[in-house]
Amino acid sequence: MAQIRIENVRKDFGSFTAVKSSSFTIEDGEFFMLLGPSGCGKTTTLRMMAGLELPTSGQIYIDGEEVGRKRARDRDIAFVFQMFALYPHMTVGGNISYPLKSQGMPRAEIKRRVGEVARILGIEDILTRPVGGLSGGDRQRVALGRAIVRDPKAFFMDEPLGALDAEFREHMAEELRALHDRMGATTVYVTHDQLEAMQMGDKIVVMNHGVVEQFGKPQEIYDWPATMFVAEFIGSPPMNFLAFDGAVQPGAMGVMLGDAPVTVPEAREGHSGSLALGIRPEHVRLDDRAAYRGTVIAVEYLGTTQIVTLSSRFGDIKARIASSQRVREGETTGLSFNERTVTLFNRETGQALRSAANEGVLRHG
Amino acid sequence: MSDFSVTEPSPGQKWIAGVLVALYAVITILPLVWIIATGFKSSADSIAYPPKVLFEPQLEGYVNLFTTQTRQTAEYLAQHPPQTWYEKIVHDRGLVIAGPSRFGERFLNSVIIGFGSTFLTIVLGTLAAYAFSRFRVPLKDDLLFFILSTRMMPPIAVAIPIFLMFRSLGLSDTHAGMILLYTAVNLSLAVWLLKGFIDEIPMEYEEAALIDGYTRFQAFNRVVLPQAATGIAATAIFCLIFAWNEYAFAVLLTSGTAQTAPPFIPTIIGVGGQDWPAVAAGATIFLLPVMVFTILLRKHLLRGITFGAVRK
Question: B218 contacts in A (CB within 8 Å)?
Answer without folding.
Answer: 102
